[in-house]
Amino acid sequence: MHTNGRRKLGVMGGTFDPIHHGHLVAASEVQYRFDLDEVIFVPTGQPWQKGDRPVSPAEDRYLMTVIATASNPRFSVSRVDVDRGKETYTVDTLRDLAEQHPDADLYFITGADALASILTWQDWSELFELAKFVGVSRPGYELNIDHLADHLRDYPEDTVTMIEIPALAISSSECRRRAGEGRPVWYLVPDGVVQYISKRHLYVPHDSAL
Ligand code: ATP
Ligand code: MG
Fold first, then answer.
1. 22 Cβ inside 6 Å of ligand 1
2. C-beta separation of 195 from 184 below 8 A
3. How many CA atoms lie within 13 A of 16 on its CB side?
4. Which fold has domain 7-171?
5. Sheet order of strands, 132-136 included
6. For atom 21 of ligand 1, which residue has the closest CA?
7. Could you tell me how many helices (H) and strands (E) the chain has, helices first?
8. pTM of the full predicted structure?
């Protein structure tokens, strides 16, 4: 409980195909720096595709997220986007979570790359009413919101905060590529996720799966 009597909840949205240590370090660092009571991981609903590739089934992505976060008492996983069952928009995620947690202030956690696209495509004024945004550094992406400065002038100072976190040059794309080529993903993703990928033959080209 915090000075204003409200809980502080982080919201870490992602496709998590698969979840990796870059996601977990980002969530852990923001939890610590903002003294969050909890970080809720929210795997996206099933998009038809992401860019030009098929996305693994939502249940597999959800289960990998549960496996990866289970040991941290401050981490949990929400099914709101998975159960909505269509393309995920951040505003819907935040609306649903705000309704489920009326006693909490929400902090949406996002990497530098994703922040830029969220703020490009969606109505910020509504997003900023629902949550504060925390952008974390990510190797290979510029963390630059200077072009937002003008628009942000009308909002409280902590509407969007950028922070530097320990750099992990890991992406789900690279994990999928490696798994597909039979190269190891050990230590890029949690052990249980390595085993889940192998058990479900995720990312293996279809004809070579058992
Ligand atoms: P893909 O390569 O399929 O796009 P991804 O690694 O970017 O996968 P997402 O599920 O798209 O993972 O990302 C979810 C969130 O985590 C986004 O806000 C993204 O910017 C952030 N993120 C992902 N990897 C890192 C990382 N290594 N460091 C910091 N933030 C990250
Ligand atoms: Mg991504």
1. yes
2. no
3. 34
4. Rossmann fold (3.40.50)
5. 75-77, 38-43, 7-14, 104-111, 132-136, 160-163
6. 111
7. 9, 6
8. 0.95
- ipTM beyond 0.95? yes
The DSSP secondary-structure symbol of 133 reads: E
Instruction: Give 123-141 pLDDT, tens digit per residue.
Output: 888 999 999 999 999 999 8
Residue 179 to residue 183: CA distance in whole angstroms = 6
Which ligand has the nearest atom to the CA of 23? 1
∠ CA 16-117-168, nearest 5°, is 50
C-beta 43 within 6 A of ligand 1: no
CB of 18 closer than 6 A to ligand 1? Answer: no
Q: Please work out whether the CB of residue 173 comes within 6 Å of at least one atom of ligand 1.
A: yes
Centre of ligand 2 to C-alpha 114, Å, is 7
